[in-house]
Amino acid sequence: MSFTEAPRVALGHWPTPLERMDRLRAELGCRPRLWIKRDDCSGLATGGNKTRKLEFLIGAAQAAGATTVMTFGALQSNHARQTAAAAVRHGLACELILTRRVRYTGPSFEAGGNVLLDAVLGASLHIAEDADHAARLARGRKRAIEAAGGRVYTIPAGGSNVTGGLGYVAAAEELAAQCEAAGFHPDYLVHASSSGGTQAGLVVGSTIYLPATRVLGINTYEPDAALQEHQVRQLTQALADELSIKVRADQVRIDHRHLGEDYGLPTAAMRAAVQRLARSEGILLDPVYSGKAFAGFLSWLQEGRFDDCENVIFIHTGGTVTLPVYAADLV
Ligand SMILES: *Cc1c(COP(=O)(O)O)cnc(C)c1O
Fold first, then answer.
1. For position 4, what pLDDT does the model report?
2. Which bin fits 66, alpha (ψ -120 to 50), beta or left (φ > 0)?
3. For the chain, N or C: smaller number of CB within 10 Å?
């Protein structure tokens, strides 16, 4: 199959901008030109990378005759907020099962940021204490909705399955056209990697549209490096199989050094990276994903690992809504 044949709905503002970071480059005195792909500006309810996945996931939900989409995430899930908005745009009800998974406390962690926006968007919110509780809540809601004549389409956490991954295959096609128009070929794409759909889509998509470009995911989720590698490789392979594309295991590159203690817990390098991009280019990152990923991007530049590159692109995957939630750890 080709990704252009999959059911798809319109949700985002495409193409998202591809911008130069010349001030940051001058500040760092680094060799490659630095670019940022603004998927934080995807246009759906404060934006982010899930918009691309949801174009295909909501398309599949509609094709399946769903009345309701159900999805999962941590309390401050950007994916949950984007799903709530995407459902509204296409006339579907939305059930969010959010788990208290992150050991972070603060006045707005339970009710501000994405949780507030989920409620504003009219999603039905269910808070779980752990994974078992979340599964029980999901079963109960599904039964109740189906008993009332509805049909539930379940989207995995992060929208990361083969269907969602198609969104980042499409992103690679979009980016290839932008790079060609700007007259360069990117040596590297660097981004935050968590549930793996973004990386799987970019690896498969770059194999098709940007074959000389390497993809580097910065692990922002899983303390067990081997497990993260396994999961991202598995999803990448499944997506490649779906599109009849050949990928090698070594195309999935992950740097695990920037996660810190765990998912959702701030690091000093994250804070420095958020401040650095804000104060050099006026661009806001987020504390959970793109801030840690940008810390990784800066470390690769400072370690000289991009010294043989002409152009490197950081993909800003969104999440800025949670900046105020982490106020105590940002300044
Ligand atoms: C979900 C998310 C990611 C990670 O994308 P995956 O496809 O889950 O790996 C990165 N950045 C932000 C802001 C996100 O919300």
1. 79
2. beta
3. C
Confidence of residue 204 (pLDDT cuts 50, 70, 90): very high
Nearest one of 68, 61, 64 to 145, comparing CA atoms: 68
CA 213 to chain centre: 19
Distance 148 CA to ligand 1 centre (A): 34
The contacts of residue 247 (CB under 8 Å, 6+ apart) are 203, 204, 207, 236, 237, 240
pLDDT tens digits, residue range 284-320? 999 999 999 999 999 999 999 999 999 999 999 999 9
319 CB under 6 A from ligand 1? yes
Decide if pLDDT at 69 tops 70: yes
Q: Sheet holding 93-99: strands in order across?
A: 124-128, 93-99, 68-74, 152-155
C-alpha 284/C-alpha 278 separation (Å) is 5
- Closest ligand 1 atom to the C-alpha of 48? 13
Nearest CA to ligand 1 atom 1: 158
What is the value of pTM for the model shown?
0.98
- Which of 301, 148, 313 lies closest to 214 in space, CA to CA? 313
Q: In the structure encoding, which two tokens stand for residue 330, read together?
A: 């940002």
Residue linked to tokens 């009800």: 93
